[in-house]
Amino acid sequence: xxxxxxxxxxxxxxAPVGDNQNSMTAGHRGPTLLxxxxxxxxxxxxxxxxxxxxxxxxxGAGAHxxxxxxxxxxxxxxxxxxxxxxxxxxxxxxxxxxxxxxGSADTVRDPRGFAVKFYTEEGNYDIxxxxxxxxxxxxxxxxxxxxxxxxxxxxTHLKDPNAVWDFWSLSPESLHQVTILMSDRGIPATLxxxxxxxxxxxxxxxxxxxxxWIKYHFKTEQGVKNLTADVAAKIAGENxxxxxxxxxxxxxxxxxxxxxxxxxxxxxxxANTYRFDPFDVTKVWSQKDYPLIEVGRMVLNRNPxxxxxxxxxxTFSPGTLVxxxxxxxxxxxxxxxxxxxDAHRYRVGANHQHLPINRPKSEVNSYQRDGxxxxxxxxxxxxxxxxxxxxxxxxxxxxxxxxxxxxxxAENVGYDHNDHYTQAxxxxxxxxxxxxxxxxxxxxxxxxxxxxxxxxxRQIGHFxxxxxxxxxxxAQGLGLQVPQEV
Length: 486
Fold this sequence. Notes:
Elements: H1 3-6, H2 37-47, E1 60-69, E2 88-97, E3 112-120, E4 123-130, H3 143-150, H4 161-169, H5 175-182, E5 196-197, E6 202-205, E7 211-220, H6 229-238, H7 242-252, E8 258-267, E9 293-302, H8 307-312, E10 325-327, H9 331-347, H10 422-430, H11 433-447, H12 453-466, H13 468-477
Antiparallel strand pairs: 1-2, 1-9, 2-3, 3-4, 5-7, 6-7, 6-10, 7-8, 8-9
């Protein structure tokens, strides 16, 4: 017999349970007695088993693994987990779709979240990215509006292509990401067969305090594979958890997926002269200008033991930083620094960082106390304020973030470079004729349900400005003419 079979069943407060099959009743037929506290506790806990699902990235799968450094980049960053070749750091990753709810299908056309937590000796470090190098919008102030268009219509409670294309057609900065989303890469074959990106620009700082701008690229060692729209739709109906199952089964079988991590590195001064604003997340840096430099290798080799504890309760924020890694003025990133951690405080609780999946491997010494579900010693009798003269933890001045210059007038402005068409057009022209055919077919199918021609025509204008052939083929597919003013 296993140990589990020998253990006695208890209540949540540790008392042995005498009968877990029959509730206590007044007489043989009942009614049920309010004093059956074991029944009440079971039902009350059951009612509260679901924490609120994530507003975005609700459907996801996760796995444990390690990151190994393969290249010495200490001249660029003092981050301890990158300090020597061969160094291994435990990590956890969560893949997800963006728009769908917890029960939605894995094989929908949607970006995929790619969130990595490194348990470093200096605390946790999160890279919270996607499987695309760009995003739909460049300023966090537009994010709630954008996500509303991806969710459900307030009257019909149905997905709303009118809202989707109305917003995109009025937000031309989305064109680059829309082109990626509607291309072959819009539906990965599995979570193992896609790249990952930090997407934003970040700053690395070395031991001397010198900095560079960087972008992260996780390149899959399994190769990139995608699904056609018809195959994806078939799988969505037959096995909506296809990607979740594939990842679990691959790791369980010892077929451990791996990614090589690369960075692009830009000297700080180049940000003032580059032909696109390097902080605009709707734009990429040309790899001809800033080639990929290998950093290390990520391997996923262990499945979660409990989905809720390790995947659903996992919390990631781009503000979870370690010394040697800082942020950039990217307007989307700046908003995410607040929004992600705030979402976790609401969804999981103020003490979410104390949960085993989120708890750092390094020692935590802070003056934060109390709050719902504080399940450790809560700091015991130690001093709970700073500065103090009782030997409490103190700041480490050498780990101050590097200073950076700021200038100008405080005002509501966009990025200086408002060319939203060149990179989308370049991407279109890089595609083979077969890839272009599928891209056009995907866009036409997605836009046909839009009820207003003015929305369709406005979006066609953006495609045309990126590449005349691109816009013309979309227009023809929708039975419309490219607007004369374009």
